Amino acid sequence: MKKLKKATRLFCLAVLLLLAVTGIAITGAAPTQAKNRERINDNQTLTELVEKKEDEEDD
Protein backbone atom coordinates (compact mmCIF):
# COMPACT_ATOMS: atom_id res chain seq x y z
CA MET A 1 0.00 0.00 0.00
CA LYS A 2 2.87 2.39 0.80
CA LYS A 3 4.48 1.71 -2.60
CA LEU A 4 1.20 2.42 -4.39
CA LYS A 5 0.74 5.67 -2.46
CA LYS A 6 4.32 6.74 -3.21
CA ALA A 7 3.96 5.89 -6.90
CA THR A 8 0.69 7.85 -7.10
CA ARG A 9 2.29 10.93 -5.54
CA LEU A 10 5.24 10.72 -7.89
CA PHE A 11 2.94 10.35 -10.89
CA CYS A 12 0.83 13.34 -9.83
CA LEU A 13 3.97 15.44 -9.34
CA ALA A 14 5.19 14.51 -12.80
CA VAL A 15 1.81 15.38 -14.34
CA LEU A 16 1.74 18.77 -12.61
CA LEU A 17 5.27 19.57 -13.75
CA LEU A 18 4.39 18.55 -17.30
CA LEU A 19 1.31 20.78 -17.28
CA ALA A 20 3.31 23.73 -15.96
CA VAL A 21 6.03 23.32 -18.58
CA THR A 22 3.56 23.05 -21.46
CA GLY A 23 1.61 26.07 -20.21
CA ILE A 24 4.75 28.20 -20.15
CA ALA A 25 5.85 26.88 -23.54
CA ILE A 26 2.53 27.74 -25.18
CA THR A 27 1.88 31.18 -23.69
CA GLY A 28 5.43 32.25 -22.88
CA ALA A 29 6.63 33.60 -19.58
CA ALA A 30 4.46 36.27 -18.00
CA PRO A 31 5.88 39.80 -18.34
CA THR A 32 6.81 41.62 -15.17
CA GLN A 33 5.23 44.95 -14.40
CA ALA A 34 7.39 47.98 -13.70
CA LYS A 35 7.04 49.48 -10.24
CA ASN A 36 6.56 53.00 -11.62
CA ARG A 37 3.84 53.04 -14.27
CA GLU A 38 4.21 56.78 -14.88
CA ARG A 39 7.68 56.17 -16.30
CA ILE A 40 6.24 53.75 -18.87
CA ASN A 41 3.32 55.99 -19.89
CA ASP A 42 5.44 59.15 -20.14
CA ASN A 43 6.91 58.98 -23.65
CA GLN A 44 7.44 62.71 -24.15
CA THR A 45 10.90 64.02 -24.91
CA LEU A 46 11.88 66.51 -22.25
CA THR A 47 14.28 69.38 -22.97
CA GLU A 48 15.73 71.81 -20.49
CA LEU A 49 16.20 75.50 -21.26
CA VAL A 50 19.32 77.04 -19.76
CA GLU A 51 19.14 80.79 -19.32
CA LYS A 52 22.01 83.15 -18.57
CA LYS A 53 22.07 85.05 -15.32
CA GLU A 54 21.38 88.78 -15.44
CA ASP A 55 24.88 89.61 -14.15
CA GLU A 56 26.48 87.93 -17.16
CA GLU A 57 24.27 89.81 -19.63
CA ASP A 58 25.38 93.21 -18.29
CA ASP A 59 29.08 92.48 -18.81
UniProtKB/TrEMBL annotation:
<feature type="signal peptide">
    <location>
        <begin position="1"/>
        <end position="25"/>
    </location>
</feature>
<feature type="region of interest" description="Disordered">
    <location>
        <begin position="32"/>
        <end position="59"/>
    </location>
</feature>
<protein>
    <submittedName>
        <fullName>Uncharacterized protein</fullName>
    </submittedName>
</protein>
<keyword id="KW-0732">Signal</keyword>
